[in-house]
Amino acid sequence: NGVMTDYSNHDSNIINVIVDGNYINFDTKPQFVNGRTMVPVRAIFEALGANVTWDDKTKTATGILDGTTVKITIGASYLLKNGEKVELDSPAFIKSGRTYVPARAIAESYNCNVEWDGNTKTVTIRSK
Question: What is the pTM (predicted TM-score) of this model?
Answer without folding.
Answer: 0.86
